[in-house]
Design brief:
The complex is a heterodimer. By secondary structure, chain A is α/β, with parallel strands linked by helices. Chain A contains eight helices and ten strands. Chain B has one domain: 3-Layer(aba) Sandwich (Rossmann fold). Chain B contains five helices and nine strands, in the order βααβαββαβββββα. Chain B has a seven-stranded mixed β-sheet with strand order 2-1-3-4-9-8-7, with helices on both faces. In chain B, strands 5-6 form a two-stranded antiparallel sheet. The chains are: A alpha/beta, B alpha/beta.
Chain lengths: ~260, ~180
């Protein structure tokens, strides 16, 4: 497997660590104390769930790296997202080192690849826990829990069982700029591809939930998203060129060129 | 008023979103007034006399609560309904003299309800989400109401409305919390 480690600059790294080095030595010696915190790696696709999970992790603990799995299988059970190759730009915008790990995306082999990626993050960044953006998927959550147990790591799912409409409202109210980069369900037409998640769109999703049982946050695979800006971003992402594809209630916004710009 | 007790390693931890908030959301949907409190800050809240108490679960690696069982001795004298979920069940077991024993289980598994109770209803098979490294032995004064002797899924005090379940009801079994609210 190939991995790339997309480090933040040395000065950023130093600044980030200066505040935490002293207390880091106390980890696990006094769990339960106010200063107890965990060094974390976030499973990261650049979509809303992983970015918001990262946000929550940053509020309580230390996010030391982002772990991105790039699957070559478009039907991957765990990791396929069409614009995951741009996750590095989101990682750079947030300012956290990223490990990019490639997998063929075969059902059980990709779990072994995930394990290897997390083990690499543990070795390279000294993480003590993993964060996921899982909301409802027992399939994904249980597998990551087992890997973490095997590697003696904490596992956190800070969006677990969250009300999906409330969650979308939270994303918008906290200032995340999220676009829809994939639709995969009736009756989502072409107008949804590339749309920004805002209050009006959330109301539409809420009504589709009642009428067609669509999961408003796309937890059932109905939607895929990409985050362009948010409160944890140092820079925002500007899409320069993108291609839309759409046929029979399946569509993608495929990002072809993008860059970081000042917020 | 319902007291929801956070058993995670510290107050306002990252785990609270995962193990406490989903239970609070179910209680909120019933329209019942509730308060969430961390187990290290519990003493003052008990004076207000909650109508019932839920002890929530923790992350797989989080057993900090088990090192401080002496903070939970009030359970012996609390005469209203208590529901211990996973780590909460371990606390209840330990307070009443049971043991916390290694018994790892992760994921959805079948649960055999073996004895009818107001909480779980009549004997039948259900499926529940498990996330624990430790289970319990049956404390004296309790009946096993689901599972097997070597893998207890649920127990109930013989005479009081004190329950423990090792599975997580927020996944596919929210009705358990709903029924607890009606006890």
């Amino acid at each position: 497997m190939i991995f790339h480690d997309n480090w933040m600059s040395e000065s950023d790294e130093r600044t980030c660590r200066e505040n935490t080095t002293e207390i880091a030595t106390n980890i696990f010696l006094d769990a339960g104390a106010d200063y107890f915190y965990v060094k974390l790696g976030v499973l990261f696709s650049g979509g809303k769930d992983s970015v918001f999970a990262c946000r929550r992790a940053m509020e309580t603990d230390s996010v030391d790296c982002l772990i991105t799995i790039v699957s070559e299988n478009p039907e991957s059970y765990m990791f396929h997202t069409p614009n995951v190759r741009w996750a590095h730009l989101v990682a750079e915008a947030i300012g956290v080192p990223q490990i990019i790990w490639q997998t063929l995306g075969e059902e059980e082999a990709e779990l072994s690849d995930l394990r290897d990626a997390i083990a690499a993050a543990k070795e390279m960044h000294g993480i003590e826990g993993v964060v996921t953006g899982a909301i409802e998927s027992v399939y994904q959550a249980a597998r990551v829990q087992r890997i973490c147990r095997e590697l003696d790591l904490w596992c956190f799912n800070p969006l677990w069982q969250i009300d999906q409409v409330e969650y979308l409202r939270l994303l918008v109210s906290e200032g995340f700029l999220v676009i829809i980069t994939g639709v995969f369900a009736y009756p989502l037409d072409e107008s949804w591809v590339g749309a920004t998640i805002d209050d009006a769109l959330i109301r539409k999703l809420e009504s589709l939930q009642k009428k067609y049982k669509i999961n408003p946050s796309g937890e059932g695979g109905e939607l895929e998203t990409f985050v362009l800006d948010g409160p944890i971003f140092r820079k925002k992402i500007e899409i320069l060129k993108a291609k839309k594809t759409y046929e029979n209630y399946r569509g993608h916004l495929i990002i072809e060129e993008a860059r970081l710009v000042d917020r | 008023m319902i007291l929801i007790v956070d058993l995670c390693y510290k107050a306002e931890s990252l785990s609270k979103h995962e193990f406490v908030d989903p239970i609070a959301a179910i209680v909120r949907q019933t329209g019942t007034e509730y308060e969430v409190v961390h187990f290290t800050e519990l003493e003052d809240r008990l004076i207000d006399g909650p109508d019932r108490i839920i002890l929530c679960g923790t992350a797989l690696k989080d057993n900090f609560f088990a090192e401080q069982i002496d903070l939970f001795t009030w359970i012996e004298d609390f005469d209203k309904p208590i529901l211990g979920i996973c780590a909460g069940m371990q606390v209840v077991a330990a307070v009443f003299g049971g043991d916390i024993v290694p018994q790892p289980k992760i994921g959805l598994e079948k649960i055999e309800i073996t004895r009818e109770t107001e909480l779980l209803g009549p004997p039948r098979e259900i499926e529940g989400y498990h996330l624990h490294n430790f289970g319990v032995t049956l404390p004296s004064g309790f009946d096993m109401v689901a599972g097997r002797r070597d893998s207890i899924e649920a127990f109930k005090h013989k005479t009081r409305p004190i329950y423990g379940i090792i599975f997580h009801p927020e996944v596919r079994n929210r009705w358990v919390v709903g029924r607890f609210m009606d006890l």
